[in-house]
Design goal:
Elements lengths: L1 H6 L37 E5 L2 H4 L12 H7 L14 H15 L3 E5 L2 H4 L9 H16 L3 E7 L5 H7 L6 H17 L5 E5 L2 H9 L26 H23 L1 H4 L2 E13 L4 H24 L4 H7 L8 H7 L5 E14 L11 H5 L1 E4 L14 H13 L5 E5 L4 E2 L7 H19 L4 E7 L13 E2 L3 E3 L8 E3 L1 H10 L14 H14 L1
Helix pairs in contact: 4-6, 8-10, 9-10, 16-17
The protein binds 2-acetamido-2-deoxy-beta-D-glucopyranose (NAG) (5 copies).
Length: 523
């Protein structure tokens, strides 16, 4: 039902979220080329990712307080599912690190739950939360797995939302910086890669324009739900502005007090699409460029050039906050690297007529229509690995080629359809191949992380779909994990063997047995 509403919409932030990176159709395999990790530059990092609320569980254990995503899930907006238990990663982290070792990951990307480390968002550090993240980091390092930490993955402490409206208030800058400081101070001797905030572009549209994601703020006629508070025309811009200022503030602090000693790097993660004009008509070509400025330039232009794209200033007008000269200086260059979240591509059609409408939200300001792509979530979409290559070329050519990590890429399947996720392997192979081409053409990509390591709680889909290399059996009180075909495939790649897109992996007999057992059980 959730998905239907979104389908009916003008366009959906859903498209911005990972739930739409669907399985590839089997005919769409991009090529048959095999490659190995030795085709990538030395030091190129391969890993896999999860996030705190999606994997940890233990939601009200050991002093953790609710985040806005807890509230959202408990209100029933995720098909009744919650992250209360999720994969129980809070208790099973050792077992999970062992699986990472068996898989052969170089690195693991996870996020810290702000309200576990600092309950209520501000004030004293929770010793149990501190201990958990210390344990996890130490366990990773003990096995030679590099931690890549995201500080904020959509899970604002509910108390800060209640107190002053979270990201729409300038007060967030101070609280976020204080939280970041605790992380740098406590974990920075062992963590070298910090991403401050995940996907501000998606988060702002879902949470403050369309109201489909927490904190569910919006205003008529734009929200998909009845919104009692918010302002779809201005708050998304305000939220991203405060996010950029928060990022810059944390980065400034890191550079001043920690970076020299800890030798780490600080970045921010942005959601990316490949975009193609629907036709070769000039207005569609211009519209495709404009969509990049709105969807990506909104976040990345300030980081690289110190200001929003010109076309945004023009179309959004006074609703787009302005950087003071000092803010502009602090935001510009505040990211040592950019984390890219990439799943899919979209066709763009001009809709300049929407600029005649009042009031306008982000979508009407962008003045394009998304087209040529089924987001129903039920049918398959073709692989579009060219989209990732395009994004990487864009960073190289338009954004001065900063170091980038692909922090999420992967394919969705129904949660417990089969362990033989050959479609996921085709997808990952095709996208890794596109990345390899881009790297060979000069892209400054430094690493690649699949989403997700385990079948986690998906933020908008709960336990209905999955992206994991490991199936987590929710019917088993012990939540046992089972490797899927893609875990074996990725493992083979990580161990240096050459891999293609097809079935050239024999699952070990034990796993074959398990697999047919599971397959029977879930049909
Ligand atoms: C939204 O509000 C209208 C009018 O109050 C009501 O009829 C409708 O059921 C509400 N819809 C939802 C999804 O709450
Ligand atoms: C939303 O914000 C804009 C710009 O500040 C303002 O003009 C408009 O009246 C607000 N709309 C609502 C519904 O509050
Ligand atoms: C646009 O032009 C290019 C190059 O001439 C061509 O390859 C492509 O098929 C055209 N696309 C459309 C949608 O007509
Ligand atoms: C490779 O890089 C060059 C120089 O930046 C660029 O002009 C060209 O379009 C790139 N090739 C591809 C296939 O993206
Ligand atoms: C399949 O997944 C659902 C959650 O979406 C779960 O309730 C169900 O028990 C699972 N079935 C099997 C056989 O694993």
């Amino acid at each position: 039902m959730f998905r239907r509403r979104v389908m009916d919409s003008r366009w959906a932030v859903i498209v911005l979220l990972r739930c739409c990176a669907l399985m590839a159709s089997s005919s769409a395999a991009a090529d048959d080329e095999s490659f190995s990790r030795y085709d990538f530059p030395p030091g190129f990092v391969f890993g896999s990712a999860t996030s705190a609320y999606q994997v940890e569980g233990a939601a009200d254990e050991d002093g953790r307080t609710p985040s806005i995503w807890d509230t959202f899930a408990h209100a029933g907006y995720v098909h009744g599912a919650t992250g209360d238990v999720a994969c129980d990663g809070y208790h099973k982290y050792k077992e999970d690190v062992q699986l990472m070792v068996e898989t052969g990951l170089d690195a693991y990307r996870f996020s810290i739950s702000w309200s576990r480390l600092i309950p209520y968002g501000r004030g004293p550090v929770n010793p149990k939360g501190l201990q958990y993240y210390n344990n996890l980091i130490n366990e990773l390092l003990k096995h030679g797995i590099q931690p890549h930490v995201t500080l904020y993955n959509f899970d604002l402490p509910q108390d800060l939302e209640d107190e002053y409206g979270g990201w729409v208030s300038r007060k967030i800058v101070k609280d976020f910086t204080a939280y970041a400081e605790v992380c740098f101070r406590e974990f920075g001797d062992r963590v070298q890669y910090w991403a401050t905030i995940n996907e501000p572009n998606v988060f702002a549209i879902g949470g403050y324009d369309q109201g489909i994601a927490p904190p569910m703020r919006c205003s008529p006629p734009f929200g998909f739900r009845n919104c009692s508070n918010g302002n779809s025309t201005s708050e998304p811009y305000l939220a991203v502005h405060n996010i950029l200022l928060s990022h810059a503030s944390a980065a400034k602090l890191y550079r001043k007090n920690f970076q020299t000693k800890q030798q780490g790097f600080i970045g921010i993660n942005v959601y990316t699409f490949g975009t193609l004009p629907l036709t070769n008509a000039t207005e569609d070509v211009v519209a495709a460029k404009r969509s990049n400025d709105f969807l990506l330039g909104w976040v990345v232009d300030p980081l690289v050039f110190g200001d929003y794209p010109q076309i945004m200033k023009k179309n959004v007008g006074a609703r787009l906050p302005k950087f003071t000269p000092l803010q502009s200086k602090e935001v510009k260059g505040s990211a040592d690297f950019i984390g890219l979240i990439h799943y899919t591509s979209i066709y763009i059609k001009d809709k300049s007529s929407s600029l005649n409408m009042e009031p306008r939200d982000f979508n009407l300001d962008m003045a394009v229509e998304f087209s040529g792509w089924d987001i129903s979530g039920s049918s398959e979409v073709p692989l579009m690995p060219w989209g990732l290559a395009q994004v990487l070329e864009m960073f190289k050519q338009d954004y001065r080629n900063p170091p980038v990590f692909i922090y999420e890429n992967g394919a969705r399947t129904p949660r417990n359809a089969t362990l033989h996720d050959t479609g996921r392997v085709k997808y990952i192979h095709a996208y890794m191949g596109a990345m390899l081409d881009a790297v060979r053409n000069g892209s400054n990509t430094r690493g690649y992380f699949t989403w997700s390591f385990l079948d986690v709680f998906e933020l908008l889909d709960g336990y209905g779909s999955s992206f994991g290399h490991y199936y987590v059996d929710l019917d088993d009180p012990d939540l046992r994990r089972y490797p899927k075909y893609s875990a074996h495939w990725y493992s083979k790649f990580l161990r240096g063997e050459s891999v293609g897109p097809n079935g050239d992996i024999k699952m070990m007999s034990k796993h074959n047995l398990l697999d047919s057992h599971r397959a029977r059980a879930v049909q």
